[in-house]
Amino acid sequence: MEQEIKLLEAVVKCSEMGQGTLDHLADVNENGVFADTMRIQRGEYESIREEASRMLLSLGEDPGQLSAFEKLSTAVGIKMNTLTDKSARHMAEMLIQGSTMGIVDLTKAIRDNPGAGEPAHRLADRLLRSMQRDVEELKSYL
Question: Could you give the C-alpha distances from 120 to 4, 28, 37, 54, 142, in angstroms and in order?
């Protein structure tokens, strides 16, 4: 059960980071088509995060959330990175870099927790595939 909790916590953290990043970028985005892309991606992150949170609650665990420092760091980083360039191209590049870090972190969590139950693995795989699809879709904005 400990491995299942760790894997689900990784899913929550990764999906919350993606969702928060997209929220911050949506605030500065000026491209309507790119806004639609981000809205769809954000919805998938939100859906996965909610499912992982429900699973953790059913195990008697608090799903938690990103720390205030992590949230602030993300917000400041995005503001700094978009001060001079608010183009969809630049934001897509930022999202690709962030998604790649998420893919690496989630892949490690999956491999480090082979004893997690099948539902947790399916959800983690769903998030992993979603991030990989997002990267491929974002490449069209480069």
Answer: 6, 34, 27, 11, 34
Give pLDDT, residue 116. Answer: 97
User: How many domains does the structure of the chain reveal?
Assistant: 1
The answer to whether the beta carbons of residues 131 and 42 sit under 8 Å apart is no
126 C-beta neighbours (distance < 10 Å), count:
17
Name the burial class of residue 59, with classes exposed (0-12), middle (13-18) and buried (19+) by CB atoms within 10 angstroms of its CB. Answer: middle
Domain that holds residue 108: 2-141
126: tokens are 């769903």
pTM for this predicted structure: 0.92
For residue 86, the domain's CATH number is 1.20.1260.10
Q: Which two tokens stand for residue 24?
A: 């911050």
Place of tokens 């799903």: 63
Averaged pLDDT in 10-residue chunks for the chain of 142 residues? 96 96 93 94 97 96 81 82 92 96 98 97 98 97 96
